[in-house]
C-alpha cells in the first residue's frame, strides 16, 4: 500500500500580497499543502494586503464561523477624487480641490461614520443582489441599487494628514487611518462616504488588514515563506484562540461527538460559537447554545 500524503488539519494565516485575489491565494495554498480542501475566511480585495485566514482539510469547517469575527485595518484615504471602484483600482470619475479641508471637518465626517452605521457596499464588490455578484452587474453596465446594511465601526482613527497633488494636478488630501469594524464592513465604502460628506469625494488608495478576530499580522506568513515551510495552526489551538472554551468530561465529550445534544451551561448562553474540548484537550466540536442545548455547528471529535 502506498503511503498517501495527508495535509495537516489547521489554519494558515497568510500575509496576502497585493494584486492577488483571495481565490488566487487559495489556489496557491492547494499546491503548497497538496490538498484540494482549502478555503478562506472573509475575502480581501486584490489591492489589499495583510491577514487572510485559510483553512486546510478539516479546519475548513471553522471558516464560516471565523469570517464573522471583528477585523482591523490600516489604510490610506485620498480625499478629492472618486473612482468607479471606490479604490485605486478603478478609473477616476471626479476630481475636486481638497486643499481647503480643515482637520475639524475631517474629524466631524469620521465621527459620523463611527459606531453602528448603515452602509451601502461598493457597487464593485462581491455582494450578491438577486443571486448575481454586484461587480458583475457593474461591469455589465447595469444601473442598480444596493440596499444599505448595518455594520459596526468600533474605531475609526486618523493618524496622519498629508497634502498631495494627484497625477492630474488636483490638490488632494491623504489620510492615514486605522479602522476596527464588524464583518461585512467595506473600508472603501467608508472612504467613499467620508469624501461625499466633505463634498470633495474620496477613495481608498492603500489597505492592509492587520487582524481577523484573534489572528494578527505577527503570526501571518507570506506565500514565499509558506512555500519554504508550511506553518499550520492546529485546529484545536485555532478554535481556542477564536471561541470561548468549554471543557467536558470523557462521557459527555463522547456523547457530543456522537451527536447527542447536551445541556449547555448558562455561562455560554448567547455567547455565539463555543469550542468544546475533552479531558485530553482534544477539540471535539464547535457548538452553539440553542434553548439551553448544545447545537453542533461542526464536529471534530
Automatic annotation (TrEMBL):
It catalyses: uridine(55) in tRNA = pseudouridine(55) in tRNA. InterPro entries: PsdUridine_synth_cat_dom_sf, PsdUridine_synth_N, PUA-like_sf, PUA_sf, tRNA_psdUridine_synth_fam2_C, tRNA_psdUridine_synth_TruB, TruB_C. Residues 31-187 form the Pseudouridine synthase II N-terminal domain. One of its GO terms (molecular function) is tRNA pseudouridine(55) synthase activity. The active site is at residue 45. Keywords: Isomerase, tRNA processing. It is an enzyme of class 5 (isomerase). Residues 188-231 form the tRNA pseudouridylate synthase B C-terminal domain. It comes from the Bacteria. Belongs to the pseudouridine synthase TruB family. Type 1 subfamily. Responsible for synthesis of pseudouridine from uracil-55 in the psi GC loop of transfer RNAs. This is tRNA pseudouridine synthase B. The gene is truB.
Amino acid at each position: 500500500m502506498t503511503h498517501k500524503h495527508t495535509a495537516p488539519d489547521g489554519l494558515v494565516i497568510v500575509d496576502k500580497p497585493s494584486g492577488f485575489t483571495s481565490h488566487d491565494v487559495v489556489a496557491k495554498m492547494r499546491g503548497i499543502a497538496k490538498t484540494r480542501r482549502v478555503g478562506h475566511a472573509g475575502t480581501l480585495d486584490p489591492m489589499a494586503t495583510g491577514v487572510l485566514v485559510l483553512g486546510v482539510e478539516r479546519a475548513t469547517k471553522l471558516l464560516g464561523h471565523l469570517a464573522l469575527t471583528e477585523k482591523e485595518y490600516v489604510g490610506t484615504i485620498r480625499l478629492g477624487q472618486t473612482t468607479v471602484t471606490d479604490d485605486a483600482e478603478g478609473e477616476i470619475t471626479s476630481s475636486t480641490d481638497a486643499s481647503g479641508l480643515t482637520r475639524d471637518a475631517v474629524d466631524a465626517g469620521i465621527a459620523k461614520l463611527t459606531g453602528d452605521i448603515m452602509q451601502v457596499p461598493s457597487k464593485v464588490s462581491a455582494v450578491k443582489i438577486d443571486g448575481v455578484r454586484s461587480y458583475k452587474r457593474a461591469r455589465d453596465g447595469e444601473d442598480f441599487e444596493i440596499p444599505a446594511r448595518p455594520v459596526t465601526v468600533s474605531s475609526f482613527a486618523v493618524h496622519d494628514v498629508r497634502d498631495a497633488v494627484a497625477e492630474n494636478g488636483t490638490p488632494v488630501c491623504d489620510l492615514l487611518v486605522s479602522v476596527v469594524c464588524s464583518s461585512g464592513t467595506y473600508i472603501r465604502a467608508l472612504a467613499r462616504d467620508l469624501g461625499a460628506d466633505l463634498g470633495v469625494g474620496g477613495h481608498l488608495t492603500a489597505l492592509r488588514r492587520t487582524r481577523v478576530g484573534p489572528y494578527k499580522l505577527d503570526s501571518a506568513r507570506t506565500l514565499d515563506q509558506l512555500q519554504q515551510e508550511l506553518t499550520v495552526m492546529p485546529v484545536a489551538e485555532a478554535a481556542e484562540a477564536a471561541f470561548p472554551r468549554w471543557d467536558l468530561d470523557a462521557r459527555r465529550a463522547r456523547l457530543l461527538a456522537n451527536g447527542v445534544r447536551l445541556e449547555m451551561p448558562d455561562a455560554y448562553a448567547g455567547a455565539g460559537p463555543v469550542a468544546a474540548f475533552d479531558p485530553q484537550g482534544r477539540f471535539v466540536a464547535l457548538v452553539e447554545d440553542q434553548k439551553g442545548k448544545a447545537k453542533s455547528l461542526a464536529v471534530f471529535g
